[in-house]
């Protein structure tokens, strides 16, 4: 087995191990995902570039093994065909798992971002709920004040009507009084 085959096998085993660890419900998984999502570490970028180079190498090996299988289809060299087919399946499966792993990681990151957005929206809705409750409470207080003021206006209107009635009654009584005074003064003048 060559060093390239060993490298592909190690890459495949590490992909499967990492994929399995991400599928399992572990308690530290969420913090690990948030770290990878928000980290701007040079080490992570370096690892990403190394993985991209390894996947490029695996892709080239996959194309080469397909080429060897297609060219040597009818040759009696069975160990060579076995080696080419083994490399084709190994590199193909490694690339396939890499694509699935990439899609799965993207889904996990999207899920993490959606959970963060949901928690922010939940906090906003709670604060808006408090704000709406405060506005409703103030509205009820103002409605109560309006009702109280309307009652006062009705009482004041009743007092104004009463005052007008009192004024009209007073003026009519004053006129009668003045007439009586004139009569009495007129009679007193006649009597004298």
Summarize the SSE layout with pairings.
Blueprint: H1 3-23, H2 29-38, H3 42-71, H4 78-191
Give a concise summary.
By secondary structure, this protein is mainly α.
- What are the low-pLDDT stretches, counting only 5+ consecutive residues below 50? none
Find the structural class using helix and strand composition: mainly alpha
Radius of gyration: 48 Å
Q: Fraction of residues in helices? A: over 70%
The tally of helices reads 4
Mean pLDDT: 87
The major β-sheet equals: none
- Our measurement of the CA-to-CA distance between the termini, rounded to an integer number of angstroms, reads 158 Å
Topology as a string of helices (H) and strands (E): HHHH
Estimate what percentage of residues fall within beta strands.
under 5%
Q: Shape, please?
A: rod-shaped
What is the number of strand segments?
Answer: 0
InterPro entries: BAP29/BAP31 (IPR008417), BAP29/BAP31_N (IPR040463)
Membrane topology: Multi-pass membrane protein
Domain BAP29/BAP31 transmembrane: 1-69, 82-112
Protein name: Endoplasmic reticulum transmembrane protein
């Amino acid at each position: 087995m060559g060093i390239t085959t060993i490298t592909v096998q190690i890459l495949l085993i590490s992909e499967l191990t990492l994929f399995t660890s991400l599928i399992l419900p572990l308690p530290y998984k969420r913090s690990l995902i948030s770290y990878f999502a928000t980290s701007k570490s040079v080490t992570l970028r370096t690892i990403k570039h190394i993985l991209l180079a390894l996947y490029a190498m695996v892709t080239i090996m996959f194309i080469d093994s397909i080429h060897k299988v297609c060219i040597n289809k009818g040759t009696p060299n069975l160990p060579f065909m076995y080696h080419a087919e083994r490399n084709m399946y190994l590199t193909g499966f490694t690339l396939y798992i890499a694509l699935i792993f990439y899609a799965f990681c993207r889904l996990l990151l999207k899920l993490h971002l959606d959970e963060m957005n949901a928690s922010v929206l939940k906090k906003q809705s709670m604060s808006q709920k408090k704000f709406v409750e405060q506005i409703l409470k103030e509205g009820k207080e103002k409605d109560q004040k309006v009702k109280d003021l309307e009652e006062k206006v009705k009482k004041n209107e009743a007092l104004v009507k009463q005052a007008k009635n009192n004024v009209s009654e007073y003026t009519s009584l004053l006129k009668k009084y003045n007439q009586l005074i004139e009569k009495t003064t007129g009679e007193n003048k006649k009597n004298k």
